[in-house]
Amino acid sequence: MRIGILGGTGPAGRALAARLAAVGFEVVVGSRSKYRAMEIVDTLLGHWPEHQLTIGAAENSGAADSDIVVIATPWDGATQTAASVEDKLRGKVVVSMANALTRLGKEFQPLVPPRGSVAASVQAAVPQCMVAAALHHVPARELGDLSHPIESDVLICSDHPSAIQVTSDIVDKIPNMRPLNAGELAMATPIESFTAVLMQLNTHYKTRVALKFTGIRDAEAARTTQAPGAVRRDAHPPSRDGVDPPTDSSSTSEHPA
């Protein structure tokens, strides 16, 4: 399976690229500039030579040719980026991981996009793809540090059961990360907003936090991600039928770091 990461040159995107490639996925880092993507790929390959990572570089349109697509741009460019490659996203699972946040003084505060969440805005912009909201609360620095395992639960929500299943299968490949089915895409609003709380905790306690839920057994978590109509683990990705903007001082899509 090839996974394309649009806006993959930012902290969260390149961290995810390294971690996914480390567990055997073929990854394409996308960017508005192919040369910027090539620079990031060279950095990742040079930093982790012992992992034999399979990572390529392309413009966002090239990365969108992949089987599964992740949008890792700043939040205020996610919809624009998705719409720019709409023809290549039709019928595919598209993972939205951006968080709409702002910092006022010493406080992080969530912003509410027009559709209530970044993920819902992407789904509205490209209605023929299957958006899953996921990976919002994973610390970027730890995610990209292949010398240490990362332990975190990953909340996944979507209006498409197969998108939850496919995204869960990808997360489940990463040791010590547990996918949890958080329901329909409407749940992306509180999930994205809660990132502001994690960022505030990081600032206050000078640490980098990740979520881990108690009371859910691993066997139960695995069963509930397999919703009716979901794609089996050995199934093919959905068929195809049917420019990272700069981050300014008023907004961010950074993950807890």
Describe this entry's structure for a reader.
- By secondary structure, the protein is of the alpha/beta class.
- It has one domain: NAD(P)-binding Rossmann-like Domain (Rossmann fold, 3-Layer(aba) Sandwich), CATH 3.40.50.720.
- It has 10 helices and 10 strands.
- The strands form 2 sheets. Strands 3-2-1-4-5-8-9-10 form an 8-stranded mixed beta sheet, sandwiched between helices. Strands 6-7 form a two-stranded antiparallel ribbon.
- A hairpin with a 2-residue loop joins strand 6 and strand 7.
- Helix 4 runs parallel beside helix 6.
- The protein is globular.
Which keywords apply here?
257 residues; alpha/beta; Rossmann fold; eight-stranded mixed beta sheet
Record the SSE blueprint.
Layout: E1 2-6, H1 11-22, E2 26-31, H2 34-47, E3 55-59, H3 60-63, E4 68-71, H4 78-84, H5 86-89, E5 93-96, E6 101-104, E7 107-110, H6 118-125, E8 130-133, H7 140-143, E9 152-158, H8 161-172, E10 177-181, H9 188-205, H10 218-225
Parallel strand pairs: 1-2, 1-4, 2-3, 4-5, 5-8, 9-10
Antiparallel strand pairs: 6-7, 8-9
Helix pairs in contact: 4-6
Low-confidence stretches: 228-252
Derived from helix and strand composition plus strand pairing, the structural class reads alpha/beta
What is the overall silhouette?
globular
Q: Radius of gyration, rounded? A: 17 Å
CATH topology: Rossmann fold
Secondary structure tally: strands: 10
CATH class call: Alpha Beta
Number of domains: 1
- State the assembly state of the protein chains: single chain
β content, as a range?
A: 15-25%
N-to-C order of helices and strands: EHEHEHEHHEEEHEHEHEHH
Largest β sheet strand count, sense and barrel closure:
8 strands, mixed
Q: Helical segment tally?
A: 10
The CATH superfamily name is NAD(P)-binding Rossmann-like Domain
**Mean of residue pLDDT values:** 89
Annotated CATH architecture: 3-Layer(aba) Sandwich
Distance between the termini: 28 Å
**Relative helix content:** 25-40%
Strand line-up across the major sheet:
3-2-1-4-5-8-9-10
